[in-house]
Amino acid sequence: MREISVNDVVQTVSRLCIDANYNLGADMFRALDLAAAAEESPTGKDVIAQLKENAEIAHNDQVPICQDTGLAVIFVEIGQDVRIVGGTLDQAINGGVRQGYADGYLRKSACHPFTRANTGDNTPAIIHYRPVDGDTLKIIVAPKGGGSENMSKVVMLKPADGVAGIKSQVIEWVRQAGGNPCPPTIVGVGIGGNFERSAMLAKEALLREVGSKNPDPELQILEDELLEAVNSLGVGPQGLGGRVTSFAVHVKMLPCHIASLPLAINIQCHAARHKEAIL
C-alpha cells in the first residue's frame, strides 16, 4: 500500500488549476494554425489570429486565457494500492482548487443556483473518480466555462434513429449553438451507456488530444463526417461566419440498453483547457 499525503494533492491540484488557465496545450496551438490555413473568411482568419495572440499573451505573461476560468472539473484515477493520509481526497482536491483559484487570481464562478450567491472560492469542485490498478494517483484538471457548458444536451433517441439520427442531432445542435460556445469549438459526443453515462462520455471525449485519431476506426469515420458537416454550417470563428466552426469532433461510445440510444453533446470552446499530473 502506497501512501500519498493530502498536502501533495492540495499543491498538485492548485498548480494544475493555474497551469490549465494560463497555458493552452500544444495541440490547441497546432489546431489554431491549421484553422488559420483552412479558414476562407477574412474575418474568420482575423478572429483566429486574435485567439492565438491571446493564448500567447496568456502564456508569456502568465495570466488567464479567458476571464471565465470555469468551474473546476476534476477527473481522478486512483490506484487500488493507494492510501490517502492526513485527510480525505475530497477535502484535498477542494483545498487545491481553493488555493489555486486564490493564488492564480482566477475568477470564482461557483454560486448558489437560486440566490446566485457566490461560494467565494470556486468550490465545491466537480469531481469524477475512477478506481484503477496500481499505486498511483492521476489527476486531470479541466476548467469548464459557462458559455460552452450551457451548450450541452442529452437526448434519448430511439434505436431505430441509428447513426443518421445521431448525425442529425449533433449537426442541428451545433447550428443552434451558433456563436454562444465561442467557436471554433471541440464537439464532445457520447453515445450509449445510459442517461448519465452518455454525458460523461461526451465530457471525457473533450480530454483527447486535438488532432489525434479515434482508436475505433468506425468512430473515426463518424468524427470525420460530423466535422465536415459542422464546418459546412457557416457559423465560423466566434459565430461571425466562415469555414472553421469546430477544430474537431470527438466521439466516445459504450453499449446501451436494447430499448435505448442515449446521445450526449458537450461543446468545448477554443480555450480547451486541461492539465494533468500523476502522483
Summarize the structure.
The protein is of the alpha/beta class. The protein is built from 8 helices and 10 strands.
Oligomer: single chain
Please state how the strands of the largest beta sheet are arranged side by side.
4-2-5-10
Distance between the termini: 14 Å
Number of domains: 2
How much β-strand is present in the residues? Answer: 15-25%
For the sheet with most strands, the description reads: 4 strands, mixed
| Share of helical residues | 25-40%
Shape label: globular
Write the layout of secondary structure elements.
Elements: E1 2-5, H1 6-22, H2 26-38, H3 42-61, E2 73-79, E3 82-85, H4 89-103, E4 126-132, E5 137-141, H5 146-149, E6 152-157, H6 162-177, E7 185-193, H7 195-205, H8 217-230, E8 246-256, E9 261-268, E10 275-278
Helix pairs in contact: 1-4, 2-3, 6-8
List the main descriptive attributes of the protein structure presented here.
single chain, 279 residues, alpha/beta, 4-stranded mixed β-sheet, 23% strand
What does this molecule look like?
This protein is of the alpha/beta class. The protein has 2 domains: 2-20 and 65-143, no CATH class; 147-271, no CATH class. It is 39% helix and 23% strand. The protein contains 8 helices and 10 strands. It has helices at residues 6-22, 26-38, 42-61, 89-103, 146-149, 162-177, 195-205, 217-230, and strands at 2-5, 73-79, 82-85, 126-132, 137-141, 152-157, 185-193, 246-256, 261-268, 275-278. The strands form 3 sheets. The chain has a 4-stranded mixed beta sheet. The mean pLDDT is 97.
